[in-house]
Amino acid sequence: MGDSKNGVKRILSSGRFWKRIDEEDKNMNGHIASNKDERAEFLSQSVVLFFGGG
């Protein structure tokens, strides 16, 4: 469990990860998502996909 959380922290603190999220936001809707709830939901789904919810 601890290793998984450290992995999440590493990914979230990576500038490249955030840049990729911004690019995906643009590609999805043609604009950067300004709604923080949208972004939080997107991030939580991404983390579940990456780590299988574990």
From TrEMBL:
This is Uncharacterized protein. It comes from Mariniradius saccharolyticus AK6.
